[in-house]
Amino acid sequence: MDDCCAVHPVHAHQRRVLHIVLWINATMFLVELVAGLLAHSTALFADSVDMLGDAIVYGFSLYVIGRGAAWEARAALLKGGIMAAFGLGVIVEVMLKLARGLTSEANVMWGVGLLALAANASVLLFLWHHRADDINMRSVWPCSRNDVVANAGVLLAALGVTLTGSAWPDVVIGLVIAALFVASATSVLRAALRVTPAPSHSN
After folding, report:
1. Distance of CA 165 to CAs 44, 56, 161, 169, Å?
2. FRET pair for 87, CA 20 to 30 Å: which of 8, 43, 121, 181?
């Protein structure tokens, strides 16, 4: 068999791992989105958006496996752009929530936040051994790491809402998660730009 048609063992394992974490994130996106809307929780909404962004990121990462550094860098640029856009989306949600004067449901935040934390901890374990394989997998790792931080933030927001009866702890944590999106997007975009090949000019 021609070697060019063979599947590299590392790439095959990356594909298996990315398929698993993609479906975990897609499922949790739906769970957290519905819960966030029902509970009027900015933190849950932000975390659900993060889950959707990660599912999209994992899908692009699957597509570019084995396609070379140029494709991996382009995918990383797209991932960074998605993270930045979702961060801005959370900020818009915060403004709408404040305008409507909605209060968060702490009990829903506790239950869904704990479920999401368990899901994202498992994602980190799946990705751990591939976090430094190449720019493709390196650009995936910050998204997954951010998920665990965001989940901890949701639980902290739930505690704040429980203790104060105010929506402000939820709003503040949602904005912190949004800032985390933007910071990670900046890091991923810079790394991608460093390895993106310059366009060739033919005479």
Report:
1. 17, 35, 5, 9
2. 121
Counting Cα atoms < 13 Å in the Cβ hemisphere of 186 gives 7
Top-ranked range on mean pLDDT: pick from 118-122, 137-141, 187-191? 118-122
Per residue in 155-171, pLDDT (tens digit) is 998 999 899 888 888 88
The residue type found at 31 is V
Structural contact between residues 159 and 173, judged by C-beta atoms closer than 8 angstroms: no
Is residue 30 very low, low, confident or very high in pLDDT (cuts 50, 70, 90)? very high
Give residue for tokens 């739906």: 30
> Residue 5's Cα: distance from chain center in Å?
32
Whether the Cβ atoms of residue 16 and residue 56 lie closer than 8 Å to each other: no
Provide mean pLDDT across the span 43-63: 80
The per-residue b/e assignment along 60-94, b for 16 or more CB within 10 angstroms, e otherwise, is bbbebbbeeeeebbbbbbbbbebbbebbebbbebb
- Check: CB of residue 196 under 8 Å from CB of residue 74: yes
Give the distance from CA 86 to its chain's centroid: 9
Secondary structure, 3-state, 109-132: HHHHHHHHHHHHHHHHHHHHHHCC
Predicted pLDDT at 96: 78
**pLDDT at position 3:** 42
Cα separation, 94 vs 87, whole angstroms:
11
Whether 67 contacts 55, CB under 8 Å = no
